[in-house]
Amino acid sequence: MSFLENGCDAIIPDNDTRTTWLTVVSAMVYLGINLVAGGRRVLVLCPMLRMLSLLMLVGLLGLDAGCSTSSDHRLTGAVRYFNIRTDVAPRHLIVQIGDEIRWQNLNAHAVRLRMLAETNPDLIACDKGFSQFGILQDSVTIAPLQSVSLCFSKPTTVRFNVWLEADNPQGAITPTGSIRIEPSRSKRSS
């Protein structure tokens, strides 16, 4: 079944029509597909592709370059680090709700970080590098000299491992690390 038989519209420009940036942007908004038919460009527009493009746009707008948070979670501003070389240091951290936990890859090659239990999105107050298309991932690759981070909104304990060769699941692995997230000091004292 072709696109045109599936409820899609085809726009066949005249030979005189020049493609302008406005035309290109308009086509991108409608998520058009350029095909070549008889030596002419055909722009195919499908309702389903339009809906998919709108959903992707909304998802991309929801992503943030840094550690983002919703208004009901309070971040402390404190950043706690795991440094990854041939081992992870420190191996265990005790942090407060709202602290940012950052894994820094100090190697000249990529590593793979994996949480040992499924990460519950309700526990996450912010993340950098763990979301892909708006979905929280349990396993992430950290590029050389880069970092990823999480902030937690509720008390919990998180365990993780780091594979020192990102593309080799049979390769060297660090001992299991852990993070204990405790209530903030202001909540503990009340």
Structure description:
There is one protein chain. The protein is α+β, with helices and mostly antiparallel strands and 190 residues long. It has 2 domains: 4-62, no CATH class; 79-189, Immunoglobulin-like. The protein contains 3 helices and 15 strands. It has helices at 21-29, 47-62, 185-189; strands spanning 9-11, 33-37, 40-45, 79-84, 88-89, 92-96, 100-105, 111-115, 124-128, 131-132, 135-136, 139-142, 147-152, 156-163, 177-182. The strands form 4 sheets. The chain has a 5-stranded mixed β-sheet, with no helix packed on it.
Percent range of helical residues: 10-25%
Per DSSP E runs of 2 or more residues, the count of β-strands stands at 15
Mean pLDDT over the residues: 74
Q: Mind telling me the CATH class of the largest domain?
A: Mainly Beta
CATH architectural label of the largest domain: Sandwich
Number of helices: 3
CATH homologous superfamily of the largest domain?
Cupredoxins -  blue copper proteins
Descriptive tags:
Immunoglobulin-like, disordered N terminus, 2 domains, 190 residues, 37% strand, alpha+beta, five-stranded mixed β-sheet
Topology overview:
Blueprint: E1 9-11, H1 21-29, E2 33-37, E3 40-45, H2 47-62, E4 79-84, E5 88-89, E6 92-96, E7 100-105, E8 111-115, E9 124-128, E10 131-132, E11 135-136, E12 139-142, E13 147-152, E14 156-163, E15 177-182, H3 185-189
Parallel strand pairs: 4-7, 6-15
Antiparallel strand pairs: 1-3, 2-3, 4-5, 7-13, 8-12, 8-14, 9-13, 10-11, 14-15
